[in-house]
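Hey,
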Amino acid sequence: TAVALAVALAMGLGTLGVSPSDDAAGRVRIGTSGYIESESAEIHANRTLPATRGETPSTAPTVHTAEDAAGGATVPSSIVPGSVNRSSLRLEARYDAALTLGWTSRAVRVDSTATIRNTSGGSIDRVELNTVAARLGGLRLLGVTVDGATVTATIRDQTIIVPLGGILPEGATTVVWVRYAATLRSTTGNSDWLFTKANGIADLYRWLPWVSRRVAFVRPNFGDPFVTPSSPHVRVRITTDRPLVLATSGNRTASNGLTQTYEATNVRDFTITAAPDFRTRSALVGTRNVIVYYRPGQDGAAILRSAVSSLSKLQKLLGAYPYRTYRVAQSAGGLGMESPALVWIPYGLAPSRLPYLVGHETAHQWFYALVGNDQAKEPFTDEAAADFVTRYMLGWKRGSRCATDELDRSIYGYSRSCYYETIYIQGGNLLDTARRQMGSTAFWTALRGYLTDHRFGLASTKQLLQALDAATTKDLSTTFAPRFPRIY
C-alpha cells in the first residue's frame, strides 16, 4: 500500500508502548517476542552474511535460465499455429533473472527468463508482462524471444506485450526471454520513488517483467495500479559496480565478488533496495527472523520495535506469517510500500509515525502477499483489510473525513483527497461493523479461513465478503449491499 505520509501524521500517531531492557546476556529484549542484537554491523556485497532461515526448497524447481533462451538457443516449443486473441493472469510462471546496477550512473540492465505454464483453462497467444521501468525508467527493449525465436514485443503503458507467434494450449509451457535497459530516476516526487536512487538509497519496485494484465499506471491518487499472480520460484542474480548492502524479497543463496544470488518462493513480485552504508538490526519473533535495514543517523531500533510488535500481534490474529524472514527496509522516500517478505518505510520518517505505517505494511503480508487481489480494480480487498487489522491491533480506530461512499470502485474512481478516507478508513470501519455483528471469535475465524482458502492465490472483494457472511447466522448482506452496489 502506498500510504501517504501526511495522512499517517494526521492520524495523531503515538509511540509504541514498548520499553526495551537489557538482560544478563547483554542483549536487548523486546517484550517476549525475541532479542535485538545490540550491534549493527555494515555488511557489503563482497562479505559473507550470517546464514538466515530461508524459503528456498531443498531441491530447486527446474527453471529455464536466460542462457537457455537468449542468443537464438533452441528451446523445445509447444506453440502451435493459429491465434485466439487471448492472454490471462492465470498462468504459472517461474522467473530467472540477472540484473546489473550502476550506482553512480543509475543504469539498470535486466536479462529475464519466464518459464510459463498455461493454467488458465484455455489457449493463449500472448503474454502481458508488468514492469514500472516502462513508465519510470525509460525502458529500452534489447531483445525478446519465445522458445528461442525472436518476436516483436510492444510496450503499452507499464506493460510489455509479448506475442507468442502462435497458440499456447492449456497445460503447455513456453519460455519467454526479455532483455532491457533502463535508468533509475533521481527524485521521489509523484511515483518516481518506485524506481529511483535518492537519499543514498536505490529503490527498484516491479522491475522484473511479471505476468499480469494491462493496467493503467496513471491514477488520480496513490492507489496501487498492479495485479500479479504468485510465482512458485524466483531466482535473481544482482551485480553491482561497487559494494552495496541489498535488501530483497528473497534469501541470499550465493555470493561471488560483486554478484549476489537470491531466491524466493511463492511471491507475487520481487523488490530490491540497496545502499552502500545500510546497517542492520534483527530480532526473532518465534521462529521468524525480522531484519531492519537503515542508513546511519536513522533510528533503526525504533523501526525494529514496530516491526517486531506488529508481526507478533498480527500472527496472533491472522495466523503464521507466510515466510521465514521479514525485512523492513528504509526506502529512498515517497510512501510506505509492501512486497512479499519485504516492506519499505520512507527515509527520514519520524519515529512517532512508525507504529501505524509499519503495522499497515506488515498487515499486507497477509492481505496482498499471502492472498493477492487486483489492487487496481478492487483496492478494498487488501487496503481496507490491512488498515482494519492495523487499527484494531493498535486501538486507533477513527471516523472518516469524507462523505460516506461506495467501496467497490477501482482506484481510478476516487479523488486524491478522499481515496484514503474512503477505502482505508470507511472500508476498515465497515469490516469492524461486521466483526461486532458477527462477534469477534466468528469474525477472526472466518478471516483466517479466507486466508487459508486463497493462500498464495488471487481473491476478490466478493470472496472476502462472502467468507464473512457464510460464517454467521446474521445477514451481513444488509450491511454490505449499500456499499457494494456492483456486487449485491
